[in-house]
Structures are given as C-alpha cells and as structure tokens.
Amino acid sequence: METTDAFAGLECTDCGGTFDADEATHRCPECGGILDPTYDYDVISLDRETLSSRPFDSMWRYEELLPFRRESAVTMDEGATPLVECPALADELGVERVVIKDEGRNPTGTFKDRGQSVAVTAASQHDATDVALASAGNAGQAAAAYAGRADLESHVFLPARSSHTTKAMVNVHGGDMTVVGGRIGEAVEAYEDALAEHDDWYPLQTFVTPYRHEGKKTMLYELIEQLEWETPDAVVYPTGGGVGLVGMHKGATEWRELGLIDELPAMYAAQASGCAPIVEAFEAGRDVHEPVEYPDTICGGLEIPDPGASPQVLEALRESDGGAVATDDDDVLEAAIAVAKGEGLEMAPSAAAAASGAWELAERGEFDGDETVVILNTGTGNKQADVLRSHLMGKGI
Ligand SMILES: Cc1ncc(COP(=O)(O)O)c(C=O)c1O
Ligand SMILES: [Zn+2]
User: Fold this and answer.
1) Domains of the chain, with CATH numbers?
2) pLDDT digits (tens, 9 = 90+) for 359-394
3) Cα separation of 307 and 78, whole Å?
C-alpha cells in the first residue's frame, strides 16, 4: 500500500487493538469492532499559513491527514465546496451568522463522494476487483462513480424508494444494481446474502470500511479554513448513520491536537422525527441507541433505524458540548423550500433536516445572538426535485 508518512494504521474503537492497514481491511480482526485510521501527529508539520497558501482545489489538499497519497487517490477533485453566507437565514434564526457548507457541489451531488474517494482508493490499494454496498441511494451512486473510475466492478443494493436519479446514475456509471422491495434494512439483508456468496467482494459499507468517515472529516477542515480559522459555535449535521458527524468531530480533535484550533465546535445531530434513535438516546442520557421499530420519514438518507456507530456519535455530541434535535418531515420540506426561496441554495430533503433542526434549536434558545452556525447541505436538492415540488403541490401551489 502507498500510504502517507504519518498514517500509522487502524485502531479498534472497541477493544483498542491496533492493526496494520495492509492486513486489516474492514472490521476488527479480534472483536469485530469499528476500525479507525490513526496517525503519528508528531511527524505532521502543518500550520495555518502552509494550509492557507495551498490552492483550495480538492479535499486531498489535506493529504498529510489522510491515509493515502493524493497522487494514488481515486479522485475527481471532490470537496473544496463553498461555504455560503445565508443572511436571511441568520435573521430568521436570530444569530449573527449562518453559513451553509454546500456539499451539493460535489461530483455526484453529495458529500458521499468524500467517503467513497478514500474507500475506493483503499479498495484499489487492496487489489479488489469488485466492491459492494447497500445504500439509501446517494452513497450507492457515489460508489458506482468512483468504482468505475478505478476500473472496479460495483454491486449496489438499493431500496425501491431510493430516488429515481440515484438509481438511474448507478446504471449510467456501469454499476450492477439490485433494487430491493422495502427499505434500507431489506437492502442490507440482500447485500449481506450476496456478500456471503461472493467472498471476493470488497465491502464499502459505512463503518465496515474504516475509510468513509475518514474522507468526511475533511468537511470540518475546510469549513474552519473558510471561516478564516474561527471555530463556529455550532455545526448542525443531518444524521442517519452519523458517518459525517463522527468524521468531522475527529477532524476537529486532530486540528486541536495539531494546535491549529483551540476549541472543538459543538456538533448537533439533526434527525427526522420518524427515525430519530440518536436524538432519543441523547435526550435519555444513554450511550447507545435503541433501534426504531417502525422508521418512517421522507428523508431516505436519515432513515437508519439501527445506527451501529451510535456510541461514537453520542460521544461526539457530548464531548463537543453539542446536542440533538428531531423535526417532522413537513418542517424539513418547509425548510428546504425556505432556503431555496430565500437563499437560492438547493437542499435535498435529507439535508434539509439540518436546516429545520437549526430552526428548532434557535426556537429553543440554544443559540446566542452573536453566534456563528454552520449547516451542512449534504446533498443537492435537484436530485430530488420531485419530492420538493410535490410538497408545494400538497399546499395547492
Ligand atoms: C443527503 C444525505 N444527508 C445525510 C445523510 C446521512 O449521513 P450519515 O450517515 O453520515 O449520518 C445521507 C445518507 O444517506 C444523505 O444521503
Ligand atoms: Zn477490536
């Protein structure tokens, strides 16, 4: 494997075992726990000036803090997305500043590209021929795109309710697609059955590969630089499995360790009321979620009833002094439409849960008037224009 100088290997978040990344490719060989990439921070010399002098051209500009070298990465220059000022929203929320990190400007229209860039690079370095995952839609599309670029076969399992665009684009990228009746749980079952029959398939499932949350931590690096090194008061993230939230919190911890920032931004998990296991566990003071028996939300990416990394997500919320909030589908769609109308930005329904969540947090008095709030727009609205438009239809518009 061609790794970066500081990349030290993988550490199990459960048993603490450490493993060579050449040999351990997915879950912990000892206990089956989640593996997390680790680095020798002493050999990384990064300061604000060095970073600021680099072109803002791709998430791979943080190569020292990623496992693989930019020159060997499977990349389409994902990341380096804009941080857009939203003055109308700031007025609504009664805070000094609201900015939206617009992940819709990624190659396949969502933040999933960051995770897949690193995970498919790892697959390629491990000499995989085939990659596989189950997804609500966006991750499957991203995986098919990056696998195609790396000349790997991709096997994507999607629930019937994933958006038309993601299904169409898995085909367009040359992926082998299986559409499963039911929801994400059924798609995961079909994927696991298929995996049991194909032991040469390389899983790209979240927190099964150690590399998807690793790619997503770059969202945090970027937004701090874009805020000219100001640590925001709150980062509101639309949470399903919590991959991006765990990644961003890790990124903040690393930058504090490197002396690039002093404080951790408060991370907030925004979920849809119809599937909010993280919010429930946070409010109950528990360290792990209880699975939601009947999940039901229009936010497909957030309909994750049994998020395996909930202990990591809950720890990130508590360690950063953040919080958790759930809003109804109707409020989520209203927020997507308000942002599109007032700020011009197009948010996917799943992403808009972060906007409606921020609204709700503001109403609860969670923010002070002088605060800076970052909202993650994890995916572009035009991938699900039909869902947004039909909400207007329901209102007679
Ligand atoms: C647009 C969008 N936002 C948010 C999420 C949830 O991401 P995470 O698993 O990091 O919580 C997804 C996942 O599918 C998504 O597609
Ligand atoms: Zn372990």
Assistant:
1) 83-110+211-394 (3.40.50.1100), 112-203 (3.40.50.1100)
2) 999 999 999 999 999 999 999 999 999 999 999 999
3) 26
